[in-house]
């Protein structure tokens, strides 16, 4: 059983999510706006946060920014808009998934399970990795400590969102291998491919931005996916 915080100013949306989440055996706490969510996260621990973007008092993006100062609890963002700008903004703030309204409650439950399984799997993989597993490319110009989840570019530490780290480390561990979009979605996001590659492509765009002059290591395979290719 997981403890889920549902944040939305629409009582109808909160009620739908509560109904399906409790049916799956989860405990649900509700927050009516972003400010309420921040207060609750300061006082309690949750396994998952589902949060709308457009809310009074404090919008979802601002609330996420404040919550990330407190906890790394996984966040799924809800929005009536599916614009790429909103997705990029959310992912840069460290959200784990993005669902556009109107949504299927059953699919949302699958995404909750997938995100939580991925978080648990990432922690397990980190424990299983050899101590201080480090990958260095270009004479050490690009350096990744997979155990500590730290990336350095030309000696400067680079901050990435949790999903960027997951995607980057998976591609590093499978470098020089052609990776289909379906494979990347399945392995990094942890759920079956839904047919929408835009989330993956948005994260690739963010990852290339973070890698700076090393972005060329990520090669686009037209009609197929991507490959992290050592020069």
Give the full name of the CATH homologous superfamily of the largest domain: Response regulator
Helix percent band: 40-55%
Number of helices: 8
Tell me about the biggest sheet?
A: 5 strands, parallel
Instruction: Find the CATH topology of the largest domain.
Output: Rossmann fold
Q: How many discrete structural domains?
A: 2
Cα shape? elongated
Radius of gyration: 18 Å
SSE topology string = EHEHEHEHEHEEEEHEHHEE
Report the strand count: 12
Q: What CATH architecture of the largest domain do you see?
A: 3-Layer(aba) Sandwich
Mean pLDDT rating: 87
- What portion of residues belong to β-strands? 15-25%
Q: Which stretches are low in confidence, meaning pLDDT under 50 for 5 or more residues running?
A: none
| First-last Cα distance | 46 Å
Strand order across the biggest sheet?
2-1-3-4-5
For this structure, what is the CATH class of the largest domain? Alpha Beta
Summarize the structure.
With 231 residues, the chain is α/β, with parallel strands linked by helices. The protein is built from 8 helices and 12 strands.
Secondary-structure map:
Elements: E1 3-7, H1 11-23, E2 27-31, H2 34-43, E3 48-52, H3 60-67, E4 75-79, H4 84-93, E5 97-100, H5 105-128, E6 134-137, E7 142-145, E8 150-153, E9 156-158, H6 162-173, E10 179-180, H7 181-189, H8 198-211, E11 218-221, E12 225-228
Written account of the structure:
The chain has 231 residues and is α/β, with parallel strands linked by helices. It folds into two domains: 3-123, 3-Layer(aba) Sandwich (Rossmann fold), CATH 3.40.50; 130-228, Winged helix-like DNA-binding domain superfamily/Winged helix DNA-binding domain (Arc Repressor Mutant, subunit A, Orthogonal Bundle), CATH 1.10.10. Helices cover 43% and strands 21% of the residues. It has helices spanning 11-23, 34-43, 60-67, 84-93, 105-128, 162-173, 181-189, 198-211; strands spanning 3-7, 27-31, 48-52, 75-79, 97-100, 134-137, 142-145, 150-153, 156-158, 179-180, 218-221, 225-228. A five-stranded parallel β-sheet has the order 2-1-3-4-5, sandwiched between helices. A four-stranded antiparallel β-sheet has the order 6-7-8-9, with helices on one face. Strands 10-12-11 form a three-stranded antiparallel β-sheet. Strand 7 and strand 8 form a beta hairpin. The longest helix is centred in the middle third of the chain and has 24 residues, at 105-128. It is elongated and about 55 Å long. 29% of the residues are buried.
């Amino acid at each position: 059983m997981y403890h889920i915080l549902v944040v939305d100013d629409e009582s109808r949306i909160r009620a739908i999510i509560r109904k399906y989440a409790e049916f799956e055996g989860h405990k649900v706490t509700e927050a009516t706006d972003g400010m309420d969510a921040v207060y609750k996260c300061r006082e309690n621990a949750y396994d998952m946060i589902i949060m709308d973007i457009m809310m009074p008092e404090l919008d979802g993006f601002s609330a996420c920014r404040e919550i990330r100062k407190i906890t790394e609890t996984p966040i799924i963002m809800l929005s009536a808009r599916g614009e790429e700008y909103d997705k990029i903004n959310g992912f840069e703030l460290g959200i784990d998934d993005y669902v556009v309204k109107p949504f299927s409650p059953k699919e949302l439950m699958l995404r909750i399970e997938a995100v939580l399984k991925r978080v648990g799997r990432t922690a397990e993989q980190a424990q299983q990795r050899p101590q201080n597993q480090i990958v260095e490319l270009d004479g050490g110009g690009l350096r990744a400590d997979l155990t500590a989840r730290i990336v350095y570019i030309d000696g400067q530490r680079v901050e990435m969102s949790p999903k960027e780290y997951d995607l980057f480390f998976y591609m590093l561990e499978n470098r020089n291998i052609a990776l289909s979009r379906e494979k990347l979605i399945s392995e990094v996001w942890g759920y079956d491919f839904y047919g929408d590659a835009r989330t993956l492509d948005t994260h690739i765009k963010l990852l290339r931005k973070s890698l700076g002059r090393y972005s060329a290591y990520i090669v686009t395979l037209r009609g197929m996916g991507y490959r992290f290719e050592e020069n």
